[in-house]
Write a structure and sequence with these properties.
The complex is a heterodimer of chains A (about 150) and B (about 800).
Chain A: E1 6-9, H1 13-25, E2 32-35, H2 38-46, E3 62-66, H3 74-83, E4 92-96, H4 101-110, E5 114-117, H5 122-139
Parallel strand pairs in A: 1-2, 1-3, 3-4, 4-5
Chain B: H1 2-21, H2 30-60, H3 66-86, H4 90-108, H5 112-129, H6 132-152, H7 158-207, E1 211-216, E2 221-224, H8 226-232, H9 236-239, H10 251-259, E3 268-273, E4 279-291, E5 294-303, H11 305-327, E6 331-338, E7 343-349, H12 351-357, H13 361-364, H14 369-372, H15 376-379, H16 381-391, E8 395-403, E9 408-417, E10 423-429, H17 431-463, H18 471-481, E11 490-498, E12 501-504, E13 514-521, E14 524-535, H19 547-633, H20 640-671, E15 676-680, H21 681-691, H22 693-698, E16 702-705, E17 710-714, H23 715-733, E18 740-745, E19 751-757, H24 789-799, E20 802-808, E21 814-820
Parallel strand pairs in B: 16-18
Antiparallel strand pairs in B: 1-2, 1-5, 3-4, 4-5, 6-7, 6-10, 8-9, 9-10, 11-12, 11-14, 13-14, 15-17, 18-19, 19-21, 20-21
Classes of the chains: A alpha/beta (about 150), B alpha+beta (about 800).
């Protein structure tokens, strides 16, 4: 199993497909893991339940987090990620369909690294995803990864 | 005949003497008067003798005319001196006199006879006036000039000397003869006159009451009269040649009196003593006379012992009486009866009386009592005067009111008859006392009445607190309380009518003498209160109700009105209270429910907004996303028409997305509280303009930004405002050539800004619609838009306590004025 580079937390399959499409179209990464709710996302990150056999030392390089999630709200997921020393260094990009000021403020407060409003215009969206993905995966140096990561 | 002649001569001499000697009255100093006398005398004598000598020299030497003019000159000068001496110019007079004498003697050269004539003058003066001492000096002076004269006139002949001495001696002889003759004649006349009057004088001396005592200079008694013997109880032989101190005390004072005897009318009081040592008050008038060169004193002595005592007593009594009379607090009037008691005249009137009757003593003395007090007969005092005058018995005229046009007052008279027959009225003005007494009584009665009334009011007011009483009971009680204000012989009863029901006090009966007052409750007349008086006839004012009673009636009526009002109200209150409680409970519940509902609604709204912003957008996104993918990924396989349709789908989605954004913005303004910070509007504008860079350059729009103010406002909302306004301006200028957008501050005294464009503009008649939600003034074909932007701007501005106004013209651009009321 290839190392997961991007963890996409998105419950809406259409949105997920559009995101994956734009990521792929822009050749950012193929190693994308999609989870459809908060709990699953946490299971994945902390290698619990269905992901218990996952290598605990392998963290995704980027998390794309939708806020409007069933069961566990995106912001709560964010909080748990950022509270845990194991996962707190993973950059989290919040994808949201709303531009509610309160959500944005709260998100940054909890340690979100970036915010992307899901644009209705797919081209624009695709552009944004490309830029953000490149930045966080290629340009930005995370504490865990030392070498330059080339996109495949 | 001879006597008469001599008398006339004597009188003439006296007159003449007076004329010459009498000094000027204008000279005050006695010493100067004396000098003036001497001067006038000397000058006159010199003058007369010069005239005489001139005549005599002519007799002896008819040829010596040479001296005539010279003599005449001297005579003239002497006459001037004489006049001067009479006119108080003694000093100048005497100076000129002395100078003339010496000038005459030394230089002009007098004839010896003239010279000797001069020398004879002092002799004559001393003869006539017996003032030898003063003039002998002058005489010597002239004598000394004789050798000097012979020295100046060496050719003096024996003949001259002889005739000079002859003339001197002859003058002396003539003068002496005249003098002698004169003295003798005078003496003879005096002796005769004296003897003529002696008997008269003696009889006077012996018969007067005053002691007349003559003493010599050693104070020895030389003679005394009968009165002296009587006063001092001595025989004549016992006092003659005895020292005066035998009958006089105060020796030193007596000596003083004698030394200062010159003053006339010198009467002094002394003490004397008689044979038995009784002290006598005496009055002495001394006088001096000379007899045979001996000085004697005559003492006229008056025994004033009795006189003094009585006069002193009288004076004292009189003074005391006067003082008493004037200082008496009672009025005193003294009258004298006239015409047998048919009239009385004022003789005296004291100060108290003046004050009381307001009249001056001097204005009424001597006037009739009927004139001053015209009502005195009516008053009754006049009759009393007559009775007292007739019978002599004192009478009391008791307190009565006197009144006439001028004065009025209460008088209390005591009338007496004096031993001298005068009538005295002693009386008092008791008007004030009387009035005070009356006032006091009246006031006391009033106060008692007030107390009763207040008590009554108090009791009535107390009824208000008794909540357990019904209206009927309360009013009946009031009716029972009111009669308690009655005075013994002045019964007051009450009748109260409320709502056609009568409440009577226990002893009520109809009376014509009554007052009433209406009773109102809630400004509506509901009845009346009636007070009646059942008065016994003896009270004069019985048919009148006092102001107090009228006030009382008013007050009680008001209280009854209040009671009715209150009682009725409290009844209603009790009923409505439970109703009210129920209502308020319901209301409370309703409010609570409503609040809850509102809260839920609010929550729902929030959820809705949230859901709109998320859920409504998701399908749009999907439609848009996939449409775009189709349009790009499969563009080779799609017919052109399909592509156009896909583009239209995508446009629709973009527009719908904007619509959602706008609606969210708008709804957010309503819910969100303002976060005010000091904002530099320039920064916001610059930032917003930069957001529109692409469009601005695309449409070649000129954007001018003036210096904008710094304002306290919500940053996010204000950014929204500018974003909307600028995008608006860009949108409507997109079809305009030389498009221009201007942003600037309002005029000096206003805070705010304007944004002006030269774009499509609008018709002013639609300006009200401009800010309405979903209102658009332009066709969607011409300008894109959802009709929310300006509505949002307006809301934000209003939330900032500001106002927005738009001015425009179709095709000529529009200007938005945003004003803040700080």
């Amino acid at each position: 199993m290839n190392t997961v580079e991007i963890l996409l937390i998105e419950d809406d399959p259409n949105d997920a497909e559009l995101i994956l499409l734009s990521l792929r179209n822009n050749h950012i990464s193929n190693n994308i893991h999609l989870v459809s709710d908060g709990e699953e996302a946490l299971d994945f990150l902390f290698c619990k339940n269905q992901y218990s056999d996952r290598n605990k030392n392998e963290n995704p390089k980027l998390i794309l987090l939708d806020l409007k999630l069933p069961k566990l709200h995106g912001l709560e997921v964010l909080k748990l990620i950022k509270d845990n020393p194991k996962t707190k260094n993973i950059p989290v990009i919040i994808l949201t369909s709303s531009n509610l000021q309160a959500d944005i403020e709260k998100g940054y407060e909890l340690g979100a690294n970036s915010f992307i409003q899901k644009p209705v215009d797919f081209d624009k969206f695709s552009e944004v995803v490309k830029k953000v993905g490149l930045y966080w995966l290629v340009v930005n140096r995370s504490p865990e990864t030392t070498g330059f990561q080339s996109s495949s | 005949m001879e006597d008469k002649f001599k008398n006339s001569i004597l009188r003439f001499i006296n007159k003449f003497k007076k004329f010459i000697i009498k000094p000027s009255k204008t000279i005050p100093d006695p010493k100067l008067r004396r000098q003036s006398q001497i001067l006038s005398l000397t000058s006159f004598t010199l003058m007369s003798f010069l005239i005489l000598s001139t005549i005599s020299s002519h007799i002896f030497n008819p040829y010596s005319f040479r001296l005539l003019d010279k003599n005449l000159l001297i005579i003239l000068i002497l006459f001037i001196i004489f006049i001067l001496s009479k006119k108080n110019y003694i000093f100048w007079g005497s100076t000129i006199l002395v100078w003339i004498l010496f000038l005459l003697i030394l230089y002009i050269g007098l004839d010896l006879p003239d010279m000797l004539t001069f020398l004879a003058v002092p002799v004559l003066i001393s003869c006539i006036f017996q003032d030898i001492k003063r003039l002998s000096f002058t005489y010597l002076l002239f004598l000394l000039t004789l050798p000097l004269y012979s020295y100046i006139h060496p050719n003096l002949t024996l003949e001259d000397i002889f005739y000079g001495i002859f003339s001197f001696i002859s003058i002396i002889v003539i003068i002496t003869l005249i003098y002698k003759w004169n003295t003798n004649t005078l003496n003879n006349i005096r002796v005769k006159q004296f003897t003529k009057h002696e008997n008269f004088v003696n009889s006077v001396i012996e018969n007067v009451n005053e002691a007349i005592i003559s003493i010599d200079s050693s104070f020895k008694i030389k003679s005394l009269n009968e009165a002296a013997k009587k006063i001092f109880n001595y025989n004549e032989s016992e006092l003659l040649d005895k020292h005066i101190s035998k009958i006089l005390l105060n020796k030193t004072k007596f000596q003083n009196i004698i030394t200062n005897i010159k003053n006339k009318n010198n009467v002094s009081r002394l003490y004397g003593k008689d044979r038995y040592g009784r002290i006598i008050n005496i009055e002495i008038s001394p006088s001096k006379y000379t007899f045979e060169n001996e000085i004697y004193f005559t003492l006229i002595i008056r025994d004033i012992t009795f006189e003094k005592e009585t006069s002193e007593k009288l004076l004292l009594t009189e003074q005391k009486f006067k003082e008493l009379f004037d200082n008496m607090s009672n009025c005193v009037a003294i009258y004298e009866a006239r015409d047998n008691g048919s009239d009385f005249i004022f003789k005296d009137f004291n100060k108290a009386a003046e004050k009381t009757e307001k009249i001056k003593r001097e204005d009424i003395i001597g006037k009739s009592v009927l004139q001053i007090f015209p009502s005195i007969k009516k008053f009754g005092l006049f009759e009393v005067f007559q009775k007292v005058w007739e019978t002599g018995k004192p009478k009391h005229f008791p307190l009565k009111m006197y009144k006439d046009k001028r004065i009025a007052g209460w008088r209390d008279n005591y009338v007496y008859k004096l031993s001298t027959g005068e009538i005295v009225a002693i009386y008092k003005d008791v008007t004030e006392e009387q009035q005070l007494k009356e006032n006091l009584e009246k006031r006391t009665q009033e106060l008692f009445q007030r107390v009763r009334e207040l008590n009554c009011l108090y009791n009535i007011t107390k009824l208000l607190q008794k909540t357990d009483l019904t209206i009927n009971e309360t009013i009946q009680k009031i009716a029972d309380i009111i009669p308690k204000i009655s005075v013994n012989n002045d019964q007051i009863t009450a009748r109260i009518i409320v709502n056609n029901q009568a409440y009577l006090s226990r002893n009520y009966s109809e009376s014509e003498n009554s007052i009433s007052h209406t009773i109102s409750s809630n400004d509506k007349i509901i009845g009346k209160l009636e007070l009646s008086r059942l008065t016994k006839q003896d009270n004069k004012n019985s048919n009148l109700f006092s102001d107090n009673a009228i006030n009382l009636t008013t007050t009680i009526s008001e209280i009854i009105g209040n009671i009715v009002e209150l009682k009725t109200a409290s009844k209603e209150l009790k009923l409505s209270e439970s109703k009210y409680r129920k209502l308020s409970k319901e209301l409370d519940e309703r409010v609570r429910k409503r609040t809850k509902e509102l809260k839920i609604a609010n929550e729902e709204l929030e959820a809705f907004t949230y859901s709109v912003s998320h859920d409504l957008r998701a399908p749009l996104r999907h439609i848009g996303g996939f449409s775009q993918i189709i349009n790009t990924e499969y563009k080779d396989k799609l017919p052109n028409k399909a592509k156009t349709y896909f583009e239209k789908i995508i446009n629709g989605i973009t527009k719908m997305n904007k619509l959602i954004d706008g609606l969210l913005d708008l709804s957010r303004i309503g819910r969100k509280a303002l976060t005010l910070t000091k904002l530099d509007l320039n920064e916001i504008v610059t930032q917003v303009v930069s957001e529109f860079e692409d469009e601005i350059s695309e449409y070649e729009i000129k954007v001018i930004i003036h210096e904008l103010p710094t304002l306290e406002c919500d940053e996010i909302l204000m950014t929204t405002v500018f974003r909307n306004l600028i995008s608006n301006a860009i949108k409507y200028t997109s079809n305009t050539e030389n498009a221009k957008i201007e942003i600037g501050p309002l005029k000096q005294n206003e805070t705010g800004f304007y944004i002006k464009d030269n774009g499509a503009g609008f018709d002013m008649k639609y300006q009200n619609q401009l800010f309405g939600i979903f209102q658009r003034l332009h066709k969607a074909k011409d300008f894109e838009g959802i009709g929310i932007g300006l509505a949002t701007v307006k809301r934000i501005i209003e939330k900032h306590n500001g106002s927005i106004k738009a001015v425009g013209k179709p095709g000529k651009g529009a200007t938005f004025y945003i004003k803040f009321n700080l």
